[in-house]
């Protein structure tokens, strides 16, 4: 028998055996295939092995090496098929497999902590029936001051405390440049939204307004000329300060996740009367939460409501302060840096 | 406002401990900012809200303590001898600027001996942070800190022609103030002058020329009322804020003016000697009582949610200086008033009390807000999330899944940032009068430049490839001739995003976003040119079925990117969030799923270079029927040797599937044939087999 024939017979045997083993669907058929190919007496491998005797002595060495390779391959194929049928075993896994290596993580972006805080606040207020309302950030003095009961000589209108816009048209001149005031300004509070909502709707009203507000504070760790406010407004018949206190206490309990004590301190806001500062007792200290009060009758009159028939309350708080307290952020400027080393932490 | 305990105790007994006292004051409206002990004096810092000018003196604070502790306020008795000479023989006052100064009063004291003030007064002033000057100036400051009325003493010898004129400043007029700096006076400045030249800036600061010195023997004591707006504007213009301007800005007690003037005369003559000329010069009219306010007790319950008994209400209002009585309403009311209605005349020092609501607050804060219960729930009412918020929450989901992080950057930007690019409008940006941060005055017209700046800052701090997005307003300037609400800028939410290099990565994020929002129309691009973007690399984005431009997507101009010291290419996009919300279908509707197998066919067409994918896919879609369920682009090859110049090979796959039957190979073949035929005919395509 020529070496060539012997080798091709071996190849044929290997491929037949491999497909027979891998095609075996259960232990019985695998065993049958094993007998056919590897059977000690009548197995095909034995048959081929016997042919080695007929090979020319000069080719015997090459033929023997190849015979061994095929034997190992067929045995491997049998073991693999056996393991596969037995449902696999430890030996399927490469012994170098190190499951303690770190996982391959998808690259996810991060949602800004202020957004997360706003979502949290709106969710809590939503459960108490408050819906979100929004309005423009560039306002006219009527919405930002007049309707909010802030008269012309009020210090809150001071150009040092507001971002008035310069007049747009150069041709029309800028009559207000002397005083530093203007026909429009970046809103200094989100109460402007409450005016817009009350002007367009009738009570009952239950809204929170959220958004950016602007005041010319020099930036430092706790001040930034742009920040976010959340203001709540409830107008209905028979709304009292006791309702206000109750809503704020429920809010605080929800947000801080504890039974929180609350107190009112008198304060002054032109659009509420009485006006109070709200403090929460948290971890043994009183924390300033924000301002609140009963809607001033002048505000109701400005939007066309009868203050003898309706009453209401409003409250406002700085979103940044709550966000920073919750996440242990110590410098407000980090919030607006766009720095990934900061953003990635949230 | 700094007060000392010992000074307060001249008007009211301090029966509470320090901690109890500051707590009660905080909870009734004078917030405790801190306390310290200076030279044995306990000094308390109280925050006085801008409506409570009456508490900018010790007496005002003492009155609060008196009503809180149920005591009667003890006011000093003013006694001094007047000489036989009338003030009118010694001085003339002309008020030519009543708009800024509704009342100017003057008294004259002759023969004082200027020297040091007594130790008790020096100590009192120093403990509340007022510098000691001499016994006359110290008395004027002492009286201001006592009752809140600023005073000024002039050296009478320096008042030319014994005439004081209250008038507007004149052109090119200057005054050297007692801080020895020169200030420009304008027609808006209220100037106190003599017959020749300015002596003081009314309500703000005195002048150096007429200040009281060791040589002074005769004094003019000014006690006046200046209009808050006028004082504030002058103080602001001159950057000269004084304890006087602070008090005038918060309004003084019109009746307290004369009290303060007499009190100063009393103390000066006691301490520095001299005699007070008889009478006073007063340019104002007599001071009427305040209008009475009717307080219905029922309103207390309506606003506060608690009832407060009539006796308590009366005690509180009287303690605050109101004339309050139930009887007068009864007498005057034709409908027969009763004890549930109270008439109240507020004191002249309480400018903030003009309405019933103001009295309700007074009663509430003194009675105590702690009495208001916190178990008064509001009725249950439904509320729902706005579509905008739902859509933005999905948008954030897509962006973060794509690896972009949300940034928040300032709305007002520098000229450099604003000038970088503005794809939405050519109108110049609106500007603020005062700069916000580092010279930022411009209301941004696009979010992209701010994000580019953030990307650059991140690069500099080793976050090499910052992929960022932001949801914020942009401010598109109104037409120059717009009026009313139209004169406000068009302010809408935009979504800006910035990533590195890959245009199609950014486009894919936008495509995914549209799908996630249920916007099913095809995304269409139209190449446009805008400053700041690479020429040919910017597209306006539209969605099939809508006319408006949804946004812009493109490669930024290389020189712009370099100007921020960023390497490589930068891709940016900005979409109108409002349009996304308007077009979104946030409640998905189930589409029928075919239970029959699909057939996939890959095609390879040789096309002229000028045929874009949108042209090719359009031809394919219209040539195929509804059984073409998916068309996906695979690859483009170019092989000039085989296909000739300006030709490219585009590989794509079509998924074919019927909802009603199993498609046969020949069904698929016929669709493929019509697609190929259409591409050959309309696009000069050649099918590679």
From TrEMBL, chain A:
Alphabetically ordered keywords of this record: Aminoacyl-tRNA synthetase, ATP-binding, Cytoplasm, Ligase, Magnesium, Metal-binding, Nucleotide-binding, Protein biosynthesis
EC numbers: 6.1.1.20
Gene Ontology cellular component terms for the protein in this record: cytoplasm
Cofactor notes: Binds 2 magnesium ions per tetramer.
Catalytic activity of the protein: tRNA(Phe) + L-phenylalanine + ATP = L-phenylalanyl-tRNA(Phe) + AMP + diphosphate + H(+)
Compartmental location: Cytoplasm
GO biological process: phenylalanyl-tRNA aminoacylation
Domain annotation Aminoacyl-transfer RNA synthetases class-II family profile: ranges: 127-322
Keyword Metal-binding among UniProt keywords: yes
Record: residues binding Mg(2+): 273
Cofactor: Mg(2+)
Gene Ontology terms for molecular function: ATP binding; magnesium ion binding; phenylalanine-tRNA ligase activity; tRNA binding
Keyword Oxidoreductase (UniProt): no
Top-level taxonomic group: Bacteria
SUPFAM superfamilies membership: Class II aaRS and biotin synthetases, tRNA-binding arm
Subunit and partners: Tetramer of two alpha and two beta subunits.
Family designation: Belongs to the class-II aminoacyl-tRNA synthetase family. Phe-tRNA synthetase alpha subunit type 1 subfamily.
PANTHER family reported for this sequence: PHENYLALANINE--TRNA LIGASE, MITOCHONDRIAL, PHENYLALANYL-TRNA SYNTHETASE
Protein name as catalogued: Phenylalanine--tRNA ligase alpha subunit
Organism encoding this protein: Aporhodopirellula rubra
Source lineage: Bacteria, Pseudomonadati, Planctomycetota, Planctomycetia, Pirellulales
Gene: pheS
Automatic annotation (TrEMBL), chain B:
Keywords of the record: Aminoacyl-tRNA synthetase, ATP-binding, Cytoplasm, Ligase, Magnesium, Metal-binding, Nucleotide-binding, Protein biosynthesis
Protein name, as recorded: Phenylalanine--tRNA ligase beta subunit
Family to which this protein belongs: Belongs to the phenylalanyl-tRNA synthetase beta subunit family. Type 1 subfamily.
InterPro entries per record: aa-tRNA-synth_II/BPL/LPL, B3/B4_tRNA-bd, DNA-bd_dom_put_sf, Fdx_antiC-bd, Fdx_antiC-bd_sf, Phe-tRNA-ligase_IIc_bsu, Phe-tRNA-ligase_IIc_bsu_bact, Phe-tRNA_synthase-like_B3/B4
Assembly mode: Tetramer of two alpha and two beta subunits.
Cofactor: record remark: Binds 2 magnesium ions per tetramer.
Primary localization class, coarse: cytoplasm
Cofactor: Mg(2+)
Coiled coil: none
Subcellular location: Cytoplasm
Residue ranges annotated for the FDX-ACB domain, each copy included: 594-689
Catalysed reaction, written as an equation: tRNA(Phe) + L-phenylalanine + ATP = L-phenylalanyl-tRNA(Phe) + AMP + diphosphate + H(+)
Binding annotation for Mg(2+): 352, 358, 361-362
EC numbers for this chain: 6.1.1.20
Pfam families: B3_4, B5, FDX-ACB, tRNA_synthFbeta
Spans traversing the lipid bilayer: none
GO MF terms held by the record: ATP binding; magnesium ion binding; phenylalanine-tRNA ligase activity; RNA binding
Organism of provenance: Aporhodopirellula rubra
GO cellular component: phenylalanine-tRNA ligase complex
The protein's enzyme class: ligase
Organism lineage: Bacteria, Pseudomonadati, Planctomycetota, Planctomycetia, Pirellulales
Gene name as annotated: pheT
Alphabetical list of PROSITE patterns matching this protein: B5, FDX_ACB
GO BP annotation list: phenylalanyl-tRNA aminoacylation
Domain B5: 288-374
């Amino acid at each position: 028998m020529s070496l060539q024939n012997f080798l091709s017979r071996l190849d044929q045997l290997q491929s037949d055996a491999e497909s027979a083993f891998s095609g075996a669907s259960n232990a019985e058929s695998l065993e049958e295939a094993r007998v056919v190919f590897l059977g000690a007496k009548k197995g095909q491998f034995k048959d081929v092995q016997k042919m080695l005797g007929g090979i020319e002595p000069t080719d015997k060495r090459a033929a023997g090496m190849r015979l061994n390779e095929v034997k190992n391959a067929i045995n491997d194929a049998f073991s693999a098929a056996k393991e596969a049928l037995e449902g696999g075993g430890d030996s399927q896994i490469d012994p170098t497999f190190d499951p303690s290596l770190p996982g391959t993580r998808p690259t996810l972006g991060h949602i800004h902590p202020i957004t997360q805080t706003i979502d949290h606040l709106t969710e809590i207020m939503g459960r108490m029936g408050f819906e979100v309302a929004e309005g423009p950030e560039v306002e006219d003095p009527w919405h930002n001051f007049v309707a909010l009961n802030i008269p012309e000589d009020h210090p809150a209108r001071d150009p040092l405390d507001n971002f008035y816009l310069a007049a747009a048209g150069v041709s029309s001149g800028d009559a207000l440049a002397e005083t530093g005031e203007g026909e429009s300004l970046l809103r200094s509070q989100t109460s402007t939204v409450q005016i817009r909502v009350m002007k367009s709707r009738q009570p009952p009203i239950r809204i929170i307004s959220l958004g950016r507000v602007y005041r010319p504070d020099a930036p430092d760790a706790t001040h930034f000329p742009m920040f976010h406010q959340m203001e709540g407004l409830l107008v209905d018949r028979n709304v009292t300060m006791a309702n206000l206190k109750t809503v704020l206490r429920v809010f605080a309990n929800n947000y801080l996740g504890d039974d929180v004590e609350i107190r009112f301190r008198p304060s002054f806001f032109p659009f509420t009367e009485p006006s109070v500062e709200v403090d929460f007792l948290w971890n043994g200290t009183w924390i300033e939460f924000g301002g609140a009060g009963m809607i001033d009758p002048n505000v109701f009159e400005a939007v066309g409501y009868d203050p003898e028939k309706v009453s209401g309350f409003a409250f406002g708080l700085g979103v940044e302060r709550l966000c920073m307290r919750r996440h242990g952020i110590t410098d407000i400027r980090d919030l607006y840096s766009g720095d990934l080393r900061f953003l990635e932490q949230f | 406002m700094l007060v000392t305990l010992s000074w307060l105790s001249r008007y009211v007994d301090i029966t509470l401990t320090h901690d109890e006292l500051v707590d009660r004051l905080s909870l009734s409206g004078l917030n405790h900012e801190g306390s310290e002990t200076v030279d044995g004096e306990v000094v308390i810092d109280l925050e006085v809200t801008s409506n409570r000018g009456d508490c900018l003196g010790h007496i005002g604070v003492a009155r609060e303590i008196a009503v809180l502790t149920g005591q009667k306020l003890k006011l000093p008795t003013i006694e001094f001898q007047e000489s036989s000479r009338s003030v009118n023989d010694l001085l003339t006052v002309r008020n030519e600027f009543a708009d800024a100064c509704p009342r100017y009063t003057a008294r004259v004291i002759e023969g004082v001996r200027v020297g040091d003030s007594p130790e008790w007064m020096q100590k009192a002033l120093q403990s509340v942070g007022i510098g000691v000057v001499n016994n006359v100036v110290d008395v004027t400051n002492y009286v201001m800190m006592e009752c809140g009325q600023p005073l000024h003493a002039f050296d009478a010898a320096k008042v030319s022609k014994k005439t004081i004129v209250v008038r507007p400043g004149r052109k090119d007029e200057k005054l050297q103030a007692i801080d020895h700096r020169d200030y420009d006076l304008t027609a808006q400045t209220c100037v106190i002058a003599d017959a020749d030249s300015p002596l003081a800036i009314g309500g703000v600061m005195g002048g150096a020329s007429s200040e009281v010195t060791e040589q002074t023997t005769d004094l003019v004591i000014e006690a006046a009322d200046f209009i808050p707006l006028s004082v504030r504007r002058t103080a602001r213009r001159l950057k000269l804020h004084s304890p006087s301007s602070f008090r005038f800005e918060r309004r003084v007690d019109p009746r307290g003016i004369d009290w303060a003037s007499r009190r100063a005369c009393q103390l000066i003559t006691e301490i520095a000697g001299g005699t007070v000329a008889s009478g006073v010069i007063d340019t104002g009219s007599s001071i009427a009582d305040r209008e009475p306010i009717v307080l219905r007790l029922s309103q207390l319950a309506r606003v506060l949610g608690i009832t407060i008994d009539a006796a308590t209400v009366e005690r509180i209002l009287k303690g605050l200086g109101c004339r309050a009585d139930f009887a007068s309403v009864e007498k005057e009311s034709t409908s027969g008033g009763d004890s549930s209605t109270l008439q109240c005349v507020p004191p002249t020092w309480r400018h903030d009390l003009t309405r019933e609501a103001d009295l309700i607050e007074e009663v509430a804060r003194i009675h105590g807000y702690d009495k208001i219960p916190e178990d008064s729930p509001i009725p249950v009412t439904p509320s729902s999330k706005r579509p905008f918020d739902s859509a933005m929450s999905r948008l954030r989901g897509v962006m973060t899944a794509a690896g972009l992080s949300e940034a928040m950057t300032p709305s007002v930007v520098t000229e450099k940032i604003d000038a970088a690019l503005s794809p939405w409008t050519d109108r110049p940006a609106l500007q603020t009068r005062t700069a916000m941060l580092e010279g930022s005055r411009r209301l941004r017209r696009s979010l992209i430049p701010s994000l580019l700046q953030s990307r650059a800052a991140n690069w500099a701090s080793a976050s090499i490839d910052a992929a960022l997005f932001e949801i914020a307003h942009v401010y598109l300037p109104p037409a120059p001739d717009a009026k009313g609400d139209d004169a406000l800028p068009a302010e809408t939410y935009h979504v800006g995003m910035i990533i590195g290099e890959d245009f199609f990565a950014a486009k894919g994020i936008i495509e995914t976003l549209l799908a996630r929002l249920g916007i099913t129309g095809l995304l269409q691009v139209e190449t446009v040119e805008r400053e700041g973007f690479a020429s040919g690399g910017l597209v306006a984005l539209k969605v099939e079925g809508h006319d408006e431009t949804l946004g812009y997507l493109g490669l930024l101009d290389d020189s712009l990117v370099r100007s921020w010291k960023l390497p490589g290419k930068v891709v940016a996009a900005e979409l109108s969030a409002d349009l996304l919300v308007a077009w979104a279908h946030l409640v998905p509707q189930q589409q029928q799923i075919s239970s029959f197998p699909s057939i996939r066919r890959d095609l390879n067409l040789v096309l002229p270079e000028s045929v874009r994918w949108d042209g090719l896919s359009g031809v394919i879609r219209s040539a195929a029927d509804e059984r073409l369920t998916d068309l996906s682009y695979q690859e483009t090859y170019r092989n000039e040797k085989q296909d000739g110049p300006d030709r490219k090979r585009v590989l794509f796959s079509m998924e074919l599937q019927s909802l009603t039957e199993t498609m046969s190979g020949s069904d698929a073949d016929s669709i493929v044939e019509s697609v190929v035929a259409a591409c050959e005919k309309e696009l000069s395509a050649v099918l590679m087999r």
